[in-house]
Inverse folding.
């Protein structure tokens, strides 16, 4: 049976730090990012074509989320990939890549699908 963990963030929260804290608090062995709803600002992303992209002033809607969390020794490795669309624009080219830094704008909810590595590896 799949288990889900819902993470709720408020305006100004650091996304990666919040995910890291939640993974430690819930002793996550392995998780996949399932879905997200909300906005981010003040972010840095390494795009799919290896460009550094950042935004400070504008809010971006999270269109898609992917990635995983893996426990390695006493730390969690987070690979978080977003596709973002500028909130204030009707037509815009999405930004897609690995999140290096991101601050929540308003509210953000992220849903993780949890796996117990002990049950996967025999």
């Amino acid at each position: 049976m799949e288990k889900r963990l819902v993470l709720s963030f408020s305006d100004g929260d650091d996304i990666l730090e919040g995910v890291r804290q939640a993974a430690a608090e819930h002793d996550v062995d392995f998780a996949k990012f399932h879905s997200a709803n909300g906005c981010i600002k003040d972010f840095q992303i390494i795009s799919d074509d290896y460009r550094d992209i950042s935004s400070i002033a504008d809010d971006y809607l999270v269109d898609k989320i992917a990635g995983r969390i893996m426990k390695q020794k006493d730390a969690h490795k987070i690979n978080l990939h977003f596709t973002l669309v500028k909130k204030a624009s009707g037509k815009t080219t999405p930004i897609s890549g690995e999140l290096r830094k991101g601050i929540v704008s308003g509210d953000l909810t992220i849903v993780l699908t949890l796996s117990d590595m002990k049950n996967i590896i025999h």
